[in-house]
Amino acid sequence: MSEANSLREAPVVVSDDRGSMRACVIRSTGGLDRIEIADVAAPGSPALLGGRDVRVAIRAVALNHLDLFVVRGLPGEYQFPHILGSDGAGVVETAGPDVTTVKPGDAVMINPGIWDGTCAFCRAGEHSLCVNYQVLGEHLPGTLAESVLVPEDNLAKVPALDPPISWAEAAAFSLVSLTAWRMIVTRARVEAGETVLVWGIGGGVSLAAMRIAKLRGARVIVTSSSDAKLAQARQLGADVTLNHRTQSVVQEVRALTARRGVDVVVENVGEATWEDSLRCLAKGGRLVTCGATTGPRVVTDVRRLFWNQYTILGSTLGNATEYAAVVRVLSSGALRPLVDRVYPLAEARTAFERLARGEQLGKVLVEVRGSAADPVVP
Question: Which of 6, 23, 73, 299 is deepest in the core (most CB within 10 A)?
Answer without folding.
Answer: 23
